[in-house]
């Protein structure tokens, strides 16, 4: 019996795929610039028992395991390595419980983010995290990268909505972390440890998640056009300094707006920068009016305030079109840096300068931002190369942006994760002692190094 036959015999309900043409579809995530390896097979797990059997088998045979959800990651965290078993949790998609009394849900890792939110809406609740890929991204992937989204400026990132996890360890043991209670400080915070660990410490199979009361009325939306990226960013700083609590605050630069306009003809060609904000809750009208006034004080050329759901949907569609519109311009390196919110104007100004100096080398930088969090997404656009390699000029520009963010007291990644793309820069942020601590934790939980090797650090 081959080792793969041995694994197949131990599965509960899962399917083991080995056909090369089928396996190929599972080798990559959305980080297309990362070259994938060749797996020995793909396991379509359907239960925690399947995942545990796979990890016991992999631990015994020293086979690398790369967990994946929907494959929407942008840092290469789910990219296959040679000789690995790709462990797909997409079929583990049961919503086990929606509990309105305790405002929580228990879901499997393959549940789609938006489907959980729609299920919560039926009982007057919501699941707050909403990454741009919320209609296709899975909860397991959100947890693995600590994903954020448009609403995280008010409601926090995925970690802020996670109460507990079910995790399969590298040797196949199943542990439960956290609890269902609002408070709880018994033991180390293992839930937070696994969230954002990108599959390097364990495989998350289910989660207990905090739900929140859904606002009773539609949010009020504020949109403004600005003469410069810096003036838009200064409006963001003013909103934060005023203590306002928008439920959404998104920034779009000129290059992105032009890309959207060339595609959809929405009349955005002459706009240098746009801010889109929303306020929900009982004070939404007052909050929106105050934000509109701060837009104008920062130099906005046009400000519109609306409580009409259709108008709000049209404005948010502009933001959600940003990445697909940018993709039409060439190959893309989609990045994700964060700075203290007061430093966002400085970061955006530096990104503009880097773009001007990179343009003669064929590199454009188009930027959108979860502005209320200080989280910018500069996308480096460049022509395809004959050999498929990323030109040095792209990495040079990215290096400059990363160092600019760190120099402003920021971070290399706000929500995409380190994955395979940013490993070379991680020590710049963490320092050598913290890197040693990361390696010690990894060795304790994964002593044979089989969990998602080559990712994170």
From TrEMBL:
<dbReference type="InterPro" id="IPR006094">
    <property type="entry name" value="Oxid_FAD_bind_N"/>
</dbReference>
<dbReference type="InterPro" id="IPR016164">
    <property type="entry name" value="FAD-linked_Oxase-like_C"/>
</dbReference>
<keyword id="KW-0560">Oxidoreductase</keyword>
<dbReference type="Pfam" id="PF01565">
    <property type="entry name" value="FAD_binding_4"/>
</dbReference>
<dbReference type="Pfam" id="PF02913">
    <property type="entry name" value="FAD-oxidase_C"/>
</dbReference>
<dbReference type="InterPro" id="IPR016166">
    <property type="entry name" value="FAD-bd_PCMH"/>
</dbReference>
<dbReference type="InterPro" id="IPR004113">
    <property type="entry name" value="FAD-bd_oxidored_4_C"/>
</dbReference>
<dbReference type="InterPro" id="IPR036318">
    <property type="entry name" value="FAD-bd_PCMH-like_sf"/>
</dbReference>
<keyword id="KW-0285">Flavoprotein</keyword>
<feature type="domain" description="FAD-binding PCMH-type">
    <location>
        <begin position="35"/>
        <end position="214"/>
    </location>
</feature>
<protein>
    <submittedName>
        <fullName>FAD-binding protein</fullName>
    </submittedName>
</protein>
<dbReference type="InterPro" id="IPR051914">
    <property type="entry name" value="FAD-linked_OxidoTrans_Type4"/>
</dbReference>
<keyword id="KW-0274">FAD</keyword>
<dbReference type="InterPro" id="IPR016169">
    <property type="entry name" value="FAD-bd_PCMH_sub2"/>
</dbReference>
<dbReference type="InterPro" id="IPR016171">
    <property type="entry name" value="Vanillyl_alc_oxidase_C-sub2"/>
</dbReference>
